[in-house]
Structure formats: C-alpha cells, structure tokens
Amino acid sequence: LKSNQDMMMKVVALMLVMQTITNGFTIKYFPTRIKTFLSASLEAILFDCDGVLADTERDGHRIAFNQAFKENGIDDEWDIERYGVLLEVGGGKERMTAHWNEVGWPDAILEEGRQDKVKSLHLQKTDIFMDMINKGSIPLRPGILRIVDDAIADGVKLACCSTSNDKAVSNLIKTLMGGERWSKFQIYAGDMVKAKKPAPDIYNMAVDQMGLDRSRCVIVEDTSIGLGAAKAAGIKCIVTKSAYADKEDFTGANMVVDNLDDGDVTLEKFNSLL
Fold this sequence. Notes:
The chain is about 50% helix and about 10% strand.
C-alpha cells in the first residue's frame, strides 16, 4: 500500500512540476513531502571491498597471508576459524600485529624491526592476492554487476571504501568488472586514513572529497565493523552477509540480505532507505 501511495505522490509531483513550468510558479510553494520526492534521490553508493564486491576474506586474503608467512620462514598458518576471529581487527597490518601480540612473535621477526617486517609482509601478501585476482580465482558476488550497471545508467556515483591496500582494491575492480566500470569508481582505501573501520574516517573522506550529501548515500557492507563505520558516519547501510556472517551482529543495519540477488535488492530499494 505504501509503495502505491508513494507512486501516486510521485505522479502528482510530476504534474505539479509541469504546471509550474506552464504557470511560472516557484517550487518553494510545493508541499514539503512533494519537494522531498523531487529532491531526495540516491546520489552515491559506497561499497566496501572484501566480502562485499567479492567474498575474498576466507579464500583470498587468508590464503595469501599464509603463503607470505611460508615464503618468509614464519611457522604460522591461519585456519578458517582463527581468521574469522582476526577479522574483528580492521586492516591487514593491524591484524598481523594483533595476532602476534596475542600468541607471541615469530623468531623470524626481530623485535627491533617488527613494524617494517609487518609492512613488508603485507605488501607481499597483497602481491599474492592480486595474482589470485588476475587468475580469476575469486569471482564477484551475485548482484554486484547488476547494481553497478544500474547505478552508472542512472548517474549514481560509485566509490569503494576499504581498509585493504588501495592497489589491491583497484586491481580487483578493474579485473573483475572491466576498465569501463572501474573508471566510474572513486577508491578510498588502505592507509589513506589513520583510523580504520569501525571508525568512520574512510567514509567521511569519500563524502568530503566527492562532495556528497550523506543523507542521499547508501553504504554496502558485510561485517559488523563495517556497519559500525557506516553508522558512525551517519549513512544508511545495507549488509550483504559473507562467509563469516554467522558470527556477526548486524543490529542497526537498514537492510540485511544474503546477497544482492537473493535479497532482490534494486536501486529502488536503495532509494527507499533515504
């Protein structure tokens, strides 16, 4: 019923616009709700990367971390369960540091050079991960291309806001979506901000640099950490559950779906959240 009423209101709004053009009235005399329909439309979709664009955490980044450890003589391997716990820490370098602070640092990493070695490991992990993407080992999640194409067709701006390395994010989008779609994305990732999710900094940067109205934006996330960042930024959020979703609390999300296709998520549903 509400959707029918909204459609009727949009029709009335359009008729009033036509009457305004004909009679020379100004839009300031329109009823408030009609002005809302005329102005409140989706301006931008801000995607997280890992777990949202592709289910990369369990079968991508985790594998790449383990390979980097092995190649550096580090006797450590993150199984699926352990990596799920470590995902509570935002950022790959921060994740390694938190893990070894808890279980003890490997003999292969000298105390005086720990942070430099962590940075080196993270760069190596990123190269391994990008090679996996280039080989097509990790596909896009269902519904991503459909929403991206619909957004581009409707002039909706696109951004990817991630704690992952910016080169890895850019490579994933360009390789899995193609260069034309990639050219439509603004990318905010890695160490562009000091405070990682659940801090809202990466989303605030996107809003500020793209000149967006945050009330007309929707974020797509897959973790409670990402949801926390979206809420802290004051932006509506759709959660698409990924491989580790069974351990997550998505209280406060505006919509929670298994994926964009199974949830029948369309641009109209994005608009309905505003």
